Hints:
Blueprint: H1 16-34, H2 41-44, H3 46-75, H4 84-96, E1 102-103, E2 112-117, E3 128-133, H5 147-168, E4 173-178, H6 187-193, E5 202-204, E6 207-209, E7 220-229, E8 233-234, H7 245-259, E9 268-275, E10 282-283, E11 286-295, H8 298-319, E12 322-327, H9 340-351, H10 373-377, E13 382-383, E14 386-388, H11 399-404, H12 408-430, H13 432-444
Parallel strand pairs: 3-4, 3-5, 5-13, 6-14
Antiparallel strand pairs: 1-2, 2-4, 7-11, 7-12, 8-10, 9-11
Helix pairs in contact: 3-5, 3-12, 5-12, 7-8, 9-12, 12-13
Amino acid sequence: xxxxxxxxxxxxxxxxxxxxxxxxxxxxxxxxxxxxxxxxxxxxxxxxxxxxxxxxxxxxxxxxxxxxxxxxxxxxxxxxxxxxxxxxxxxxxxxxxxxxxxxxxxxxxxxxxxxxxxxxxxxxxxxxxxxxxxxxxxxxxxxxxxxxxxxxxxxxxxxxxxxxxxxxxxxxxxxxxxxxxxxxxxxxxxxxxxxxxxxxxxxxxxxxxxxxxxxxxxxxxxxxxxxxxxxxxxxxxxxxxxxxxxxxxxxxxxxxxxxxxxxxxxxxxxxxxxxxxxxxxxxxxxxxxxxxxxxxxxxxxxxxxxxxxxxxxxxxxxxxxxxxxxxxxxxxxxxxxxxxxxxxxxxxxxxxxxxxxxxxxxxxxxxxxxxxxxxxxxxxxxxxxxxxxxxxxxxxxxxxxxxxxxxxxxxxxxxxxxxxxxxxxxxxxxxxxxxxxxxxxxxxxxxxxxxxxxxx
Length: 456
């Protein structure tokens, strides 16, 4: 009998692409490190320098508490819309610092909010800046996206910016918003539709990563469910009397695979078959699949969506089955608009803390995912930097990244990000020119674009 190779285990994926990418990034990091330093805003504006020092002092005072919060969330991961304990832990911490919280805000049970405002705050004359904090985890691997770090950094940024702004007599308002259900959902879009951005002039948050990438590429995402219905029949005695729903979903799956050949390189399709029958002896009369559609631009996402719809309909016609497509089961998410004014300012804060922020375009656009903060950044100027907290070969949504989210590197990311975000928030309140430039950049990028206007 001929010997067969052992195929009981999956083949080990090649690391060649990541190795090449890593070498290119390391060369870019070295180039950035060796470049002549440019004057930072803290050096150019004495007021900013004093504010930055005040924020640093506040964050230093909160460091132990912030890292303990990150570790607590890491040890108790909760899934989207079920983050009851996480929300309570964070809201309780905010209240201990003297800021009353509202829980279950904007129609989302596990969201919370707190705010600081100057005694003479005038919403028509003074800016409002929002700090967002995520805290949901992933099924099976816990905080494999590091939202525990995001939450702790957000609280630290809020506390530090509020304290420094009050001491400096700044006029404005700072809102902390706990934002659940980013993973596999679009929690921020539900909060938006509940009014969370009313009166907000800019929004900021951070995200952990394997690199310091303040202007990272993010892509659109749509989520859909597909259900094919056929006619059941005995698979041996009368197969001709059946209409096989599993055939339909299989044709759709193959059609999507063929479509990938003609997609732009930044587009992505991911599908799973969630049901396909109960017995091999019965032709299935029902089969279902779930699908993500992603693209780097909203216009190309809409184009790809139409092509996907044609594939799904074609599979129904070929198999003689009916098809129902439920688009946007969760609201779609848009790509993050990286506001250059805010990105530049945050990058300066991180250089001051010894980090090396990579210029836009350094990392391949293929190293991208989706986030509901994209929806925020299409309604107000937004800042969503990626901050290094893991080795360069560690990917998001893995067990290795979950381990990194509880490491000393994650603690450093919490502290550095809390300081950086807090400093940007203070600058937006103190430096009218910064806010004006951020608004101008937002308008050049297309201005306000609401997701509700784009859905099918």
